Amino acid sequence: MEQEMINISSQMIGTISKESSVLGLGCWAFGGSDWGDQDDNDSIDAIKAAFNSGITHFDTAQAYGRGHSEELVGRALRDVREKVFIASKMMFTPREKVEKSIVASLKRLGTEYIDLFYIHWPRKDADLEGMMEGLVLAREKGLIRGIGVSNFSVEQMKSVAKIGRIDAHQTCFNLLWRWGERELIPYCIENGISVISYSSLAEGILTGKFNRTLQFMPGDHRKGTVLFDNDVWPHVYDGVEELKKAARDINRPLHELAIRWILSRPGISTALVGSRSSSQVYQNVKAMEGEIDQAAFDCLTKISDNIMNVVPDTGNIFRWYP
User: In the annotation, is 64 catalytic?
Assistant: First the structure.
């Protein structure tokens, strides 16, 4: 199956001197863990389909399959490296080990530099400022082009920003999880930090494919996330049914509207969407086609406001606090 390239707009992220598509491919599932079984050939096909469809932003991490996702991203994109924007991440690493860890990612990705490199998660009582010093040095050496943080609070961002410029913050943001609108996104706007959304389809919920009664495959991490809690899911399910009805009235699939809604929100630079096959990529890329009236976004926001009234602010959807 082939699809013509869609005109996906691009923009700069932070101070990085390369454009990035506003729709990015999230590559977590390609690691082969946390989402159930994943075939490497399907992963490579998805990455190539994304590029051929106009996506240039590819987001991976050392933690995704212990580097396996990085390897597949590098293998699939090696012939078009200068045309793509590659982002990766590392968990907390002491200052003196930062460069060695980045070099390992470079080797797996088969590249001489990484466009954007994140501190994946903050760690309590860890020397995050020291880690930031290591990232600043790596940027000065040209191993990375930009520095990002993910899942940081405003106070944690202020702490590491004293050491070096933050180009981007990657956070969970979607129609079912908007806690970042309170403090995080306004802070990023004020300080010229690009905001990149992950879980843009809320762990797949905003595809509308889940039934009221949930079933997960072995190895699927999602069964433990907040939105699927027994006392939360029934309300989320009902809210999604309302969103699906609104989507039918607009005559667009819900997942397309959910992606475009994110990109319509203040401060959001890029929406990352995971895809496990080329067919899923093509479905998601269709979100970028055509104009959507502001009234449609307003309708989605109103429904989202009601859903958010029953979603607890647990800090992150995974309730993971390293």
Answer: yes
34-86 pLDDT, tens digit each: 666 789 999 999 999 999 999 999 999 999 999 999 999 999 999 999 999 99
Residue 268 bridge partners (DSSP): 195
- State the Cα–Cα distance between residues 113 and 142, nearest whole angstrom: 7
Rounded to an integer, what distance in angstroms lies between the CA atom of residue 137 and that of residue 132? Answer: 9
Pairing of strands 268-274, 116-119: unpaired
Would you give the end-to-end CA distance of the chain in angstroms? 42
Catalytically annotated residue among 64, 187, 198, 282: 64
Give the integer Cα–Cα distance in Å for 197 and 171. Answer: 5
SS3 call for 281: helix
Taken in order 305, 311, 313, 316, is the CA torsion positive or negative?
negative
Model pTM?
Answer: 0.95
- CA distances to 201, 238, 239, 246 from 243, rounded to whole Å, are 13, 9, 6, 5
Residues in the chain: 322
248 Cβ partners below 8 Å, 6+ apart?
none
The set of residues, in sequence order, having a beta carbon less than 8 Å from that of 63 and lying 6+ positions away, is 31, 89, 91, 120
User: Distances in Å between the alpha carbon of 263 and those of 21, 270, 301, 305?
Assistant: 11, 7, 13, 17
Place of tokens 């890329």: 285
Dihedral sign, Cα of residue 313, residue 318, residue 319, residue 322? negative
- Lowest mean pLDDT of 87-101, 216-230, 237-251, name the range: 216-230
- Beta carbons of 17 and 85 less than 8 angstroms apart: no
Q: Contact, 72 vs 80, CB < 8 A?
A: no
